[in-house]
Amino acid sequence: MTTEALKKTARKLRLEAIRMVYEGGEGHPGPALSIGDIVTALYFEIMRLRPEEPDWPDRDRLVLSKGHACPIVYAALSERGYLGKPVGDFHLRQLYSTFQGHPTMGKTPGIDMTSGSLGNGIAIGAGMAIAGQLGHRNYDVYVIVGDGELQEGINWEGINLAAARNLGHLIVFVDRNGWQSGGTVDEILGTNDISRRFEAFGWHTQSIDGHDFDAIRGAVENAKRESGRPSAIICDCIKGKGLSFMENNNDWHKGVLTAEQYQIAQQELGGEPA
């Protein structure tokens, strides 16, 4: 896809994610919008996928470690054709719904791993990459984590393991938006230079604008050239990206729009959701 087509798709996915939160009456819109461009790039350009065959053994995998941001992934799966009907036919965070409050493997076609207990995604992704090594498969594993989530110690066990096993097919995106549920990351524990921490464990690292499709594309290409070690792409993102009243406003870590706010969202993101 062209960069302009990706931008258009990202707006559409953001609006669909907002619709799901609005109609479902619960959800985490800020964290979902923050990674909208990363998710769009992955599902519509970077990852090798077969929506008609969700369990294709050689597909690339995605682990959404910050599982509460799942509405944007659900929107991408729908737009890619995994569900066979419009996403509007499903409801977020409802009993028996295809779209649970956190990604649930086996419940939603295209979800590769149940997630949402923060901190586990990198270790899970490392396990998937090791399975690919042992099975002589060439798929890539992508993980999306939050910057606040990196305070969980299990992240660093997985990071250490990935370097020790030379997992060149593991690529981690860090959503560095500077916020977590209780306040700013710096206030709560400090970011401690994420790039240097990954580098200290032997990872290839890059820092980019997480809303720049050319930067995302180029960073993944660079990461794939590092075939002998895992890669971390540290993405400067804006929490609530795309909506004027949500951007950098941590009140929208979790919350539901009013009817008036939903109308504003429709206007700012380009019209009615698909």
What do these coordinates show?
- It is a single chain.
- By secondary structure, this protein is an alpha/beta fold.
- It has helices at 3-24, 29-34, 36-46, 70-80, 121-134, 153-164, 185-188, 194-200, 213-225, 259-269, and strands at 61-64, 141-146, 170-176, 179-180, 183-184, 204-209, 231-236.
- The strands form two sheets. It has a five-stranded parallel beta sheet, with helices on both faces. It has a two-stranded antiparallel ribbon with strand order 4-5.
- Helix 1 packs across helix 4, helix 3 packs across helix 9 and helix 5 (121-134) packs parallel to helix 6 (153-164).
- It is globular and about 50 Å long.
- The model has no long low-confidence stretch (mean pLDDT 94).
Layout: helices, strands, pairs:
Layout: H1 3-24, H2 29-34, H3 36-46, E1 61-64, H4 70-80, H5 121-134, E2 141-146, H6 153-164, E3 170-176, E4 179-180, E5 183-184, H7 185-188, H8 194-200, E6 204-209, H9 213-225, E7 231-236, H10 259-269
Parallel strand pairs: 1-2, 2-3, 3-7, 6-7
Antiparallel strand pairs: 4-5
Short characterization:
With 274 residues, the protein is of the alpha/beta class.
- Euclidean distance between termini CA atoms: 19 Å
Strand order, main sheet: write it out: 1-2-3-7-6
Percentage of β-strand residues: 5-15%
Q: Helicity level, as a percent range?
A: 40-55%
Helical/strand content category: alpha/beta
Low-confidence spans: pLDDT under 50, at least 5 residues?
A: none
| Shape designation | globular
Largest sheet entry: 5 strands, parallel
> Which H/E pattern describes the elements?
HHHEHHEHEEEHHEHEH
Radius of gyration from the CA trace? 17 Å
Average predicted local confidence, pLDDT:
94
Number of strands: 7
Q: What is the tally of helical segments? A: 10
